[in-house]
Amino acid sequence: MKNVVLKIKENKLIAKNTYRLVLTGDLTNKYPYRPGSFVNLLIPGFYLRRPISICDINNKEVVLIYKVVGKGTLQLSKMKKGEINTLVDMGNGYNISPVKNTALLVGGGAGIPPMYYLAKELLKKKKHVITVLGFNSEKEIFYDNEFKKLGVKVVIATLDGSVGVKGLVTDAMKGLKYDYVYACGPIPMLKAIYKDAKAPGQYSLEERMGCGFGVCRGCSIKTKAGIRRVCKDGPVFKGEDIIW
Amino acid sequence: MVNTKVKLCGITLSNPIIPASGTFGFGQEFAMLYDLNCLGSFCLKALTKEARYGNPTPRIAEGKNGVINAVGLENPGVNEFIKEEYPRLKKIYKNKVIANVSGFSIDDYVYVVKKLNNCPQIGWFEINISCPNVHGGGMAFGTDKDVAAKVTKAVKKVSKKPIIVKLSPNVTDIVSIAKAVEKAGADAISLVNTFLSMRIDLKKRTPIIKNTFGGYSGDAIFPIALRMVYQVAHAVKIPVIGIGGISSAEDVIEMMLAGATAVEIGSANLVDPYICPKIINDLPKVMKQYKIESLKEIIGGCK
Q1: Residue B271: its chain A contacts at CB < 8 A?
Q2: If you measure CA to CA, which chain A residue comes closest to B44?
């Protein structure tokens, strides 16, 4: 974990209620950033930091995509310039080593961003990547072209059928061939993926956090491996360890 | 050179800054961020007889300038602590720490104190009779002066270390409880624990905290905590540790002027993990600004 003050380079609406925030500054780190890890932003006027998963990162720039879900993220969406006090390199992200040939990356809504950096890391290791992106409707779709530009297969599912497969991400998963699964999104979606998946995998969970670095125990959950902190031991957990 | 040393029940602290229980784990996470030896001491996460998961999630909510928690004393249990965590303490900190002790019966408190008596790095016991997040325990012992006195007497009888009793602000008359625990043998008093509070989700029309209520802490409570520290410090002869919304060197001085011998920093650690070293760094500067040569001389100095 590292505390840095980052500069807002861009903060713009890219889909319904969805913003792309680019922050710049000294992001050099002792260890490489793990996909699935997050940053914790201090938004002026709010006491607790807001955890947001990393969509892309290098030594100078971090890309975050977030949805406006409450007062804090609404305030964040109005910050078009200036600086943000940020804790970076938070949490335990996705482990990419179990993939043999093909990884299936499933993201739903605000759970999609971490899949982008994960896809890039998997491609570096010469793995095949299939992404399934789930949205409610066409207006909410983002980053489908960015994934395509990486050269990975992209399958879109929309609840209202306005684009791609009509239905849930699990409907779009049918018939795909893969040997490992990575998922991020709402709990009911993760549960359905775990049930339908033809391969083992890792799932990113969400809980209300106090600190984000493991000391307040606000986000502890019970897992088959014992009590785990979503912020520090997670947010990514093996599917078989989660008590669904 | 200014002097930041204070004495707490016979043990000298290099400065009065003590991270509060429940905001600092067992120190390991913070030891990866900075050298803990700059701290006057630190409070361990509350320990109970048995291991506890605590309350169901969500157990965190936000308020203006503060946070509500309903963690409910998650901890590995005192025996597991002694086996796994205690040996790691000396690798990250050379001075004595404060063990926070909680329970669901007087026997529970006595059990934990007896178990920790033989841990030399534990310098004090902070008896937590003020956790608002457990049923039939914690705060249940701190809201009635007779029960508070009974717990104090029982742990004092078996303890080989000074007893600090941590008080709840969720009472009508905190002074009467402070006096009762002093009379029962407490060596010091720390106050305040969190304020019982709640938030409601407007969309769902249900409490945000699964347990309905949680304890409120953070910047917002500072003036109320300060008032209570002032009242208690004027009513008892034993040292008082001031807790509640402290997040700057100025706050520390204000608490000490109200009568605190030392202070505990709680929620501020969660928002700015470097807050304690920052305050310690700022203290000499702010002391000079207010013409304070020695911190211990200002304790209770508010005219």
Answers
A1: 42, 47-49, 211
A2: A215
pTM for the predicted model, two decimal places: 0.94
Q: Does residue B261 belong to any structural domain of this protein?
A: yes
Residue A139 lies in a domain: yes
Residue-number span of the structural domain to which B82 is assigned: 6-298
Cβ contacts of residue B83 below 8 Å, gap of 6+? none
CATH code for position B146 = 3.20.20.70
Set of chain A residues whose Cβ sits within 8 Å of the Cβ of B60: 48, 208-210, 216, 218-219
| CA pair distance A210, B93, nearest whole angstrom | 25
Could you give the residue numbers annotated as active site of B? 131
A46-61 pLDDT per residue, tens: 999 999 999 999 999 9
Report the distance separating Cα B109 and Cα B150, nearest Å: 11
Rounded-to-integer distance, Cα B40 and Cα B97, Å: 9
CATH of the domain at A142: 3.40.50.80
The count of structural domains within chain A is: 2
> Is B70 in a helix, a strand, or coil?
coil
Pairwise CA distance, residues A221 & A207, whole Å? 9
What is the number of domains present in chain B?
1
Which amino acid type is present at position A217?
A: R
**Interface mutation target, options A217, A227, A231, A242, chain B, most CBs of B under 10 Å:** A217
Range A101-106 average pLDDT? 97
Note whether A123 and A71 are same-domain residues. no
- Reduced to 3 states (helix: H, G, I; strand: E, B; else coil), residue A69 is coil
- Using CB atoms within 10 Å of the CB of residue A171, give its burial: 0 to 12 exposed, 13 to 18 middle, 19+ buried: middle
In a domain, A194, yes or no: yes
On whether residue B303 sits in a domain, the answer given is no
Q: Are residues A195 and A108 in the same domain?
A: yes
Asked if residue A125 is part of any domain, the answer here is: yes
Cα–Cα distance for residue pair B237/B240, rounded to 1 Å = 9
The backbone torsions φ and ψ at residue A107, rounded to the nearest 5 degrees and listed phi first, read -125, 140
- Going from the first residue of chain B to its last (303 residues), give the mean pLDDT of each consecutive group of 10, the final group possibly shorter: 95 98 97 97 98 96 97 97 97 98 94 98 96 72 91 97 97 97 98 97 96 97 98 98 98 98 98 98 98 97 94
In a domain, A79, yes or no: yes
